[in-house]
Amino acid sequence: MAFNNKKKNANYISAKESRAIARENRKITQEIEKKRNRKHIPEEEYVTKMKNPENCVEFDNVQTYFFTDIGTVKSVDGVSFDVPQGKTVGIVGESGCGKSVTSLSLMQLVQRPSGQTVGGEIRFNTGDHVYNVVNTPTSVMQKLRGNYMSMIFQEPMTSLNPVLRIGEQVDEVIALHNPDMTKDDVKTRTIQMLEMVGIANKEGVYRMYPHELSGGMRQRIMIAMALACNPRLIIADEPTTALDVTIQAQILDLLRGLKDKINSSIMLITHDLGVVAEMADYVVVMYAGRVVEKGTAREIFKDPRHPYTIGLMKSKPVVGKYTEKLYSIPGSVPNPIDMPNYCYFKDRCEMCVDGCEGAYPGMYQISPTHFVSCYRCAAEAVGKEGDTKNEQ
Ligand SMILES: Nc1ncnc2c1ncn2[C@@H]1O[C@H](COP(=O)(O)OP(=O)(O)OP(=O)(O)O)[C@@H](O)[C@H]1O
Ligand SMILES: [Mg+2]
């Protein structure tokens, strides 16, 4: 019958199939949740050692998946990179490549139970302890968040509570992390923080509601909240995307100044290469849930090797250079539920070589700090990163 011969459509799944997937997912996520919700988790399960004690964070083959009713989305699949102490690491890549999910995995804020970090280690150095965040129980995590690591979220308007005054919101953060402070001390600290982020009318702003402030001011409030407890690591997820360029420059200056003042590390997530060039010491380029290239900012900007990075650089406007039309990388990111078993960029790549149709390429090392996941670099590689997973 013609009906039976109909070719299966990869983009369609029946209600029955979806139910079966949901059932399977529940089994997997319930098991992970059960393990996580145990009463007394022994310390040796989550206290660990850094590979390099100079680092603040080490991502080691991290896998964060979303178990959805239409299949498993491998949002972060085998990501490894380090954030050295006191340095800024920029994470770039197009929308949906897993930048936010990588940082949420570090904060343990991925939407559970469907989102789970199912593999790898994220080692976080607080100075006197090293925690593997992936296995750290929620109660310990609450002490790490805010005090040691904090996040400036993507959209200040949705992250601030519209019905509470600015002062109350910043006070809450400070009071929560410093239970022995008196009310007056908390208010003094809040005013200090507002001053530190460059708000002139600090007493007035203390009493205002979020809607009374401009976008730039709201972003400053978010930064004040994030820095209230002098964290060792600041995660800034697109801190300037909603702002115009002059305010953007001010906010970046502010962030840089504050970082030096409290000597913390910054993980700066953005798709604005200009921001990265200005701020970052190291750059990590992500594509479809994987790191495709990483190195110092100089290496990535002056000597990009992965065709995707080269494409990103070409698509950036340059002052003084005339072009008819800006370059755009052809094609689009593959469907995250159904990733190919070869290089994820191959179908969009204009520089393919022999071997590209093989397994997903490992991380080839071309300098002490520069790693590229591309077969083009295989010949000149001085080594290979051992822990890159080649899942097929
Ligand atoms: N709660 C969720 N459920 C299912 N899939 C999700 C969920 N959150 C994120 N994803 C998927 O994970 C992938 C990575 O998303 P992520 O938010 O990390 O992208 P991003 O790189 O931060 O993009 P942007 O630049 O737009 O912020 C996307 O394919 C997205 O669809
Ligand atoms: Mg994001």
UniProtKB/TrEMBL annotation:
Compartment list: Cell membrane
Membrane topology: Peripheral membrane protein
Record has Membrane as a keyword: yes
Domain ABC transporter residue range list: 57-313
InterPro entries: AAA+_ATPase, ABC_Ni/Peptide_Import, ABC_transporter-like_ATP-bd, ABC_transporter-like_CS, Oligopep_ABC_C, P-loop_NTPase
Keywords: ATP-binding, Cell membrane, Membrane, Nucleotide-binding, Transport
GO BP, one annotated term: peptide transport
The protein, known as: ABC transporter ATP-binding protein
Organism annotation: Roseburia hominis
Taxonomic lineage of the native organism: Bacteria, Bacillati, Bacillota, Clostridia, Lachnospirales
